[in-house]
Amino acid sequence: MNDFLTIARDGPIVTLTMNAPEKRNALSIEGGSTEAFTEACAFIAAERDVRAVILTGAGSAFSAGGDLKAMRDRYGMPPAEIRDSYRRGIQKIPLALYDLDVPTIAAVNGPAIGAGLDLACMCDIRIGAESSSYAESFVSVGIVPGDGGAWLLPRAVGQSRAAEMAFTGDRLDAQAALACGLISRVVPDDQLMEEARALAARIARNPPQVLRLTKRLLREGQHMRLSSLLELSAAYQALAHSTEDHREALQSWFEKRPAQFQGR
């Protein structure tokens, strides 16, 4: 990993921490942050015994979004070059993070603004500290969501709320984010990582192959017809029924003991 992300592993749980607190974990269109995420996601995808991932930020912010100083320096760049810089840069992050097979949790420790909010929306589950806040703020700096926010945010909060957030750039506090379903819980600041790790541990106790198949069904269900999803579900179910972990789950239930899943 490069310096933008630190990676820590505790058994089947990987924690990724954005580690640029002096820049409020701002993301760059090109360069360090993009490479960090794509490398981390490639590492996680290759580790078949990883069962859950937590993403958080160092310092007082989850991520303040795009680097405004870099935007200022790019002003006047030819449009074709800007387009290409997005495509070969920050847009690689949603393609890598959103498509991870393992469940992901965003532990939002502070402001998640612009691309920072979209980054949180790339995760399956979002939990927020009491001090966290959320804004789809691109319009406020005269740009559009360039990293997938127009696709991600409506799926998190619905079309009407997403439009209101994107058209106004207004910021939501943690309780407002909870009320609209953007996050699933609010916890005291000093308990955020404890809660995230506990949630990740509950997820990681389950059969890893089935976790990955379940996540893929949830992802595919966002754009497939019901009939097509049912066909895919039947195929995945056939795979799940054939695993040793399925047999272990049934045996442990009948024997009234904790299951020991091996990912086979």
UniProtKB/TrEMBL annotation:
Similarity remark: Belongs to the enoyl-CoA hydratase/isomerase family.
Keywords: Isomerase, Lyase
EC number: 4.2.1.17
A Pfam family: ECH_1
A molecular function GO annotation: isomerase activity
Keyword Isomerase (UniProt): yes
Superkingdom of the source species: Bacteria
Designated gene of the protein: echs1
The species this protein was found in: Pseudoroseomonas cervicalis ATCC 49957
Protein name: Enoyl-CoA hydratase/isomerase family protein
Single GO BP term: fatty acid beta-oxidation
Enzyme class of the recorded protein, top EC level: lyase
Gene3D superfamilies: 2-enoyl-CoA Hydratase, Chain A, domain 1 (3.90.226.10), Lyase 2-enoyl-coa Hydratase, Chain A, domain 2 (1.10.12.10)
